[in-house]
Amino acid sequence: MFKITSIIIAEDDADDRLLIEDALNENSIASSNLIFVRDGEELLQILQDNPQNPSIVILDLNMPKKDGRQALKEIKQNNDLKHIPVIVFSTSSSADDIRSSYKNGVNTYFTKPSKYTELVAIIATVKDYWWDKAALV
């Protein structure tokens, strides 16, 4: 089984960051493994400055400065970063956003749920697959 070293969560909304962190904790994913950024520029800067890439990036599409759509393109076009699994977690359920995200290399796309229990269940699904089943490098 692969050990998750760190998770970068690109989310500009403070309430959503807190809810995601709580849901990760409820699924026994330690807060010490989390790095939060507020926009795509900050995400790309951390990825470029950090010699040890994160195990996973959780990416919101709608962020200031550089949005998640552009950040995803840049990650997946960069030979040093494109192997990092990226999970989009967005309020957008637009077919165009979903299709575009997969076209640009996203590994999984989730629409943010309206209920906290649904968020915890989504995180459980992510954990089950990415922590327990997928082979990562």
UniProtKB/TrEMBL annotation:
Residues found modified as 4-aspartylphosphate: D60
SUPFAM superfamilies found in the cross-reference section: CheY-like
InterPro entries reported in the protein's UniProt record: CheY-like_superfamily, Sig_transdc_resp-reg_receiver, TCS_response_regulator
Pfam families recorded: Response_reg (PF00072)
Residue ranges constituting the Response regulatory domain according to the UniProt record: 6-127
Superkingdom assignment: Bacteria
GO biological process, one term: phosphorelay signal transduction system
Protein keywords: Phosphoprotein
PANTHER family noted in UniProt: RESPONSE REGULATOR RCP1, RESPONSE REGULATOR RCP1-RELATED
Protein name listed in UniProt: Response regulator receiver protein
Source species of the chain: Fulvivirga imtechensis AK7
